[in-house]
Amino acid sequence: MENHVATVELTPPYLVFVGDTTTPVFAKTGAGLVHWRRNSCLGQYRTTSDAIDLGLPDLSIAEAVAAGVRTMMVGVANVGGFYPETWIDAFFEATRAGLDIAAGMHSRLIGLPGLADAAAAAGTRLVDVRVPPNKLPIGTGRKRTGRRLLTVGTDCASGKKYTALAIEREMKARGFKSTFRATGQTGIMIAGSGIPIDAVVSDFLAGAAEMLSPDNEPDHWDVIEGQGAIYHPGYAGVTLGLLHGSQPDAIVLCHEAGRTTHEMWDDFPLPGIAECIDRYLLLGRTTSPNIRCVGISVNTSKLDPVQRARYLEDIEAKLHLSCVDPVASGVGPIVDLIEREF
Amino acid sequence: MENHVATVELTPPYLVFVGDTTTPVFAKTGAGLVHWRRNSCLGQYRTTSDAIDLGLPDLSIAEAVAAGVRTMMVGVANVGGFYPETWIDAFFEATRAGLDIAAGMHSRLIGLPGLADAAAAAGTRLVDVRVPPNKLPIGTGRKRTGRRLLTVGTDCASGKKYTALAIEREMKARGFKSTFRATGQTGIMIAGSGIPIDAVVSDFLAGAAEMLSPDNEPDHWDVIEGQGAIYHPGYAGVTLGLLHGSQPDAIVLCHEAGRTTHEMWDDFPLPGIAECIDRYLLLGRTTSPNIRCVGISVNTSKLDPVQRARYLEDIEAKLHLSCVDPVASGVGPIVDLIEREF
Which is deepest, A29, A315, B130, B199, by most CB within 10 Å? Predict the structure, then answer.
C-alpha cells in the first residue's frame, strides 16, 4: 500500500540469531519466526554448539550474506534485556558484512557503543522493533475500505498473536486476500512490519492503529494482533485505542482455559467469556457499528483431550459460536463462518 | 506526598510571560493562571505595550527577580507553536537572571539553540510541561487511600479542567482537604505540577494516572482533570487509561449545551448524557467498584439565562443529579452532595 509507510519495516530473508541461548523460553521469538515464516529464514547463527537449535541450517555471517540474507533477526531475549559481549561481536560482524539487524529487546541496538556508527558506515539499519515510527496521526475514525478482524482477549498473553497468525494462514490457504498486522515486537518480527502499539504515545493510539491497517481492496482481510485486555486494570486503555483504530468488522475472543484472574494482577478476576465479548462489541461500535464476534479461541494446553473437547463444546453450546483451540485443531471453523457470512 | 515525585513540578511564584501577543485566545493559559492562581502570579512580562493585559503589574525581569519570582511561565501560545525571536531574547534574559522557564507549546524550550546551555550555566530549569516524566510505572490497580473525583466529558473541550478547578476551590472554601491534579499542559501550569497524560507512552497510561493521585489521608480529595471522552473515536483510549488509573470514587460529567457531535469529528454524534454517564460508570468499576456520578457540569455559554435555567432543570429532573453551569453559578450543589454522602 502506498500510504502504509509509517510502520517498522524489516527486509527478508533472515538469519536468525540464537547466540549462546540454551533456555527455550528465551528463544520464543526465533521459534515463532521459524514456525510462521519458515521460508524467510535461510539459517540460524549460534555462537556455541549447545545453544538452542531452531531447526535451521547453521550459517556463518559470510555464508548468510552469500545465500542472500538481508537482515539478522535477534530471535532471543535475555535475562534483564541486556546484550552479552559475545552477541555484540556478532552484531558488528553482521553490520560490516552489510546486514541489517533487528531486535525487540528493551535494551536498544542503537545504544550499543559504536554500532550505530558502524551501521552508518556500512549503509545498513539497526531496527529496534519496540520503537514506534516517528510520525503518527491522531485517529480520525474515518471508515476505511477492506475487511478487518481483530483478536481480543480476556487477558494479556491469552493467544491473540497466535490466533491472528493462524487465521491469516488459514485464510491464505483458502485463497483469501489476507495480511497479518502486527502490534507487538514478536509479531512485528514475524510479519516483517508493524507498529509496537503499547510504545506509541497515548494521543496517537487510535491513529497508529488506523495507519496499521490502511484502506485496502473490499475483499481483503487485515488480521490484526490484539494487545492487552479490556477488563485489565493496567492496559485497557491500549486495548480500547487499538479497538477503535482497527474498526474491526469481526473480533475473535482469545482465552486460556482455567485462568480465573488476570495474570500477575491476581486481585482482578477475569470476566466471563460472554460478558467479555459483549464489552468488546459495545465499545467497538463507536467506530465499527456492525462489529460482531466470529469465534472464540482457547488455549487448552493445561487440559487433557477429553477435558478439552468438553470445554470447547460447552462454550459452543452456550454461546452459539465456534470455539477452537488453534494449536490443537486449527481455526478452520472460524474461517468457515467468515467465508459463509461476509 | 513523599512518593509523588514523578510529575512535572514548577516553582512559584511566577512572572507570566505575555510577549507581544494581542489575540486573547492565544493567552488562555496566562488568563487561566491569573484566574485560578492569582496569588502565585507576581507580575506579567510584555514586550509591547499593545499586548494583552492580564491585570497583573508589568515587571521587568530584574524587578521580578527582586520581588522573589522563581519561574517565568510562558502564558501564551502562538500560531504554529514556534517561538518568535523577541520571545527568545527574553527567555535568555530570564535564564541568566536565575529564573526557571516553563512552557506548554509544541515546540520545546530545550530545542532553542543555546538556551539549555545558558540554563545549565545559570543552574535554572527549562520545563516543557508537555513532556512527561521519564520513569513511569505500569498500572497496578492497587487500591489507594484517600478520595478521588475525576471530571469526565461527553467530548473533548467540554469543561473538564474548569470544573475540576472549580470543585477544588469550592472544597477548599469549605475546609475540605483537596488537591487539583492536572493532566494537560494548561492544567499543569495552573497547578504547578501534574502529568501530561496524552503524552505518556500507552503502556504507562494507567500507571501515570496512579502516580498522579497517590495514597493520601482518608478524608483528602484529589480532584483530577479528565482528558478526551469515552465515545471519542480518536482519544477514548487515553480516557479509559486515565479512568482506570484514577480509581475515582466520584465522577462529574461535563458537557457543552447544544453540541451534538464530537468537535472536529463531526461524523461522530455525542452520546446522550445519561448514556454517557452509564458508560463511564460501567468501565470505571474495573478499578473502582463503588464509583458513582455526583453531578453534571454544563457549559451553557451559548444559551440565554432563561434557556440556561430550563436546560439545567430539565437534566436535573430527568437524572436526579445536580446539574450546574460552573461559570454561571458555581459547583456548590455538587460539593453539597459530596459533603452529605461521603
Answer: A29
B contact test, residue of A202, A266, A279, A288 with most B CBs within 10 A: A202
Q: Round to whole Å and give the CA distance between B137 and B3.
A: 13
Is A200 an 8 Å CB contact of chain B?
yes
Burial class of residue A47 in the structure, from the number of CB atoms within 10 Å of its CB (0-12 exposed, 13-18 middle, 19+ buried): middle
User: Could you tell me which of B8, B113, B132, B124 has the C-alpha nearest to residue B71?
Assistant: B124
Higher pLDDT, B307 or A134: B307
Please report the pLDDT score of residue B77 as a whole number. 83
Q: Give SS3 for B42.
A: strand
Partner B, chain A 11-30, Cβ-Cβ below 8 Å: none
Of all residues in chain A, the percent with pLDDT exceeding 90 is: 93
Cell numbers 512552557 correspond to: B103
For residues A244 and B236, is the Cβ–Cβ distance under 8 A? yes
C-alpha cell at B5: 515525585
Distance CA A114, CA A108 (A): 13
What is the interface pTM, i.e. ipTM, of the complex? 0.94
- List, for residues B185-208, the tens digit of each pLDDT value: 999 999 999 999 999 999 999 999
Q: Could you identify the residue written with the cell 465479548?
A: A277
Q: Alpha carbon of B237 to those of A42, A129, A180, A197, B276: distances in Å?
A: 40, 22, 23, 12, 15
Q: By the CB < 8 Å criterion, does B183 face chain A?
A: no
Q: Which burial class, exposed, middle or buried, applies to B330 when counting CB atoms under 10 A from its CB (0-12, 13-18, 19+)?
A: middle
> Residue A256 belongs to what H/E stretch?
strand A250-256
Average pLDDT over residues B144-166: 98
Mean pLDDT of B155-170: 98
Nearest CA-CA partner of A287 in A251, A236, A248: A248
* Shortest Cα–Cα distance, A243 to chain B (Å): 9
Average pLDDT in chain A: 95
Q: What span, in angstroms and rounded, lies between the C-alpha atoms of B20 and A312?
A: 69
CA A176 to each of CA A210, B22, B194, B253, B280: distance values in angstroms, whole numbers, following the listed order: 22, 60, 50, 46, 39
Judge if the upstream peptide bond of residue B218 is cis by omega within 30 degrees of 0: no
Report the pLDDT averaged over residues A287-300.
98
Confidence of residue B1 (pLDDT cuts 50, 70, 90): very low
A139 touches chain B (CB under 8 A): yes
Q: What gap in Å lies between CA A303 and CA B133, rounded to an integer?
A: 45
CB spacing of A202 vs B206 below 8 angstroms? no
Higher pLDDT, A80 or A107: A107
Q: How far apart are CA B313 and CA B307, in angstroms?
A: 10
User: What's the one-letter identity of residue A40?
Assistant: S
Closest by alpha carbon to B54, among B83, B80, B86, B22? Answer: B22
Q: Which three cell numbers stand for residue B299?
A: 457549559
Q: For chain B, say whether A268 makes contact (Cβ under 8 Å).
A: yes
Distance CA B250, CA A17 (A): 52
Q: Which three cell numbers stand for residue B289?
A: 467498584
> CA triplet B244, B248, B250: central angle to 5 degrees?
140
AA identity, residue A111: G
Instruction: Give the tens place of pLDDT for each residue, A248-283.
Output: 999 999 999 999 999 999 999 999 999 999 999 999
pLDDT in tens, B207-253: 999 999 999 999 999 999 999 999 999 999 999 999 999 999 999 99
pTM as predicted: 0.96
Does residue A331 contact residue A166 with C-beta atoms inside 8 Å?
yes
